[in-house]
Protein: RVT_2 domain-containing protein
Organism: Cephalotus follicularis
Amino acid sequence: IEVAKSPKSIFISQHKYVINLLTETGMLGAKPSDSPMDTNVKLYLDEGGNVLSDTKSYHRLVGKLNYLGVTRPDIGFFVSVVSQFMSSPRSTNMDAVMRILQYLKKAFGKGVLFQNHGHTDVEGYFDADWAGSPSNKKSTSGYCVFVGGNSIAWKSKKQDVVARSNVEA
């Protein structure tokens, strides 16, 4: 993790890690993408291309993207989506991972910025998609917490049970 400090802010990123990841996967020369995942694509557990013969590379790559999420909340949700297919990844799942890498190619310098906004107010935001998973109808919820206008915590998680209403989700 790289830290850049100024009198009024601190910026943390993993710029070199992203460059190394793109180089390692051969994606440094790939066409960049404006978004980490196509919003119209739905990934299913038992559908969508052939089962990958080399699951270790998928596991390793998703693990590296998960680690990158420490300083990149913009990819956190999308990494959680591709993480759901670790037991039996398919070619469409690997395509989704490659799309995340294409997004990183376009936005490899992003990170988390902490600034002094002159207050220490605590704010929290929560959202959920009701029955958003097409394969099992489970909801995904997420939250982020800000202190002094700076994001200090974030998480998204698929719920353990199927919600029967959006309030329950």
